[in-house]
Design a protein that fits this description.
207 residues, alpha+beta, 2 domains, 7 helices, 58% helix, elongated, binds zinc ion
Length: 207
């Protein structure tokens, strides 16, 4: 007898029977039309490779200068943390803490959990420990706001370009790359995909 897979709609709690989709197809709830999941054809290995890419981009973003200002023979460069700490010096401690939390702490935790979940699925001996990290990851994602910081930075670059020469640093480009790769990761590392990889790994272990 073939096993019937069920999926619960996250919007209206309707229990639906899961259908096998072709790559690129998406399934939606028959009652509220919410998108249930999409088959992107991404494998665990591809997602793991993307996760390690985010680690490299994150390290570059936090190690190298973000930008440098050249004005009257003086060049002053700043890093992501330096930009946040400058707000503390200008008596904006709340903003400073918010920037550090949303651009350094939350993304670092997000990347760490993603690597943990994927490594567990790929190499872990105990497969039951990915449920709670996935819940934390789903709650953490809205707090990671590197793209909001980047938008603010772009606005300041436009405003400053007439006053000083601006040299864009490696951290700027890695920050841009991180936004793109993280957005793509969000579509690959979904609870539905994790569950499928978990089932696949479980059947591989049992064989
Ligand atoms: Zn629904």
């Amino acid at each position: 007898m073939s096993e019937v897979k069920l999926v619960v709609c996250h919007e209206c709690d309707l229990i639906c029977q899961e259908k096998t989709l072709a790559v690129g197809e998406a399934a939606s709830c028959p009652r509220c039309r919410a998108k249930l999941f999409q088959h992107r054809g991404s494998t665990l290995e591809q997602t793991l490779a993307m996760a390690f890419t985010t680690v490299i981009l994150f390290l570059i973003m936090n190690t190298f200068p973000l930008m440098a200002l050249h004005l009257q023979q003086n060049t002053r460069e700043t890093s992501l943390l330096g930009a946040a700490l400058a707000m503390w010096d200008r008596e904006m401690p709340v903003l400073c803490v918010l920037v550090i939390l949303t651009t350094i702490v939350a993304p670092a935790m997000q990347i760490g959990i993603e690597i943990y979940v994927l490594s567990r699925l790929k190499w872990g001996k105990q497969l039951k420990t990915t449920g709670l990290p996935m819940v934390i990851l789903q709650k953490l994602r809205p707090w990671s706001m590197v793209e909001v910081f980047m938008l603010g930075l772009l606005v300041s670059l436009v405003k400053l370009k007439d006053l000083a020469d601006i040299i864009v640093g490696p951290a700027f480009w890695s920050c841009s790359g991180l936004i793109v790769v993280s957005a793509y990761m969000g579509t690959m590392l979904t609870p539905h995909n994790v569950w499928n990889w978990f089932q696949q790994r479980k059947s591989d272990v049992q064989v």
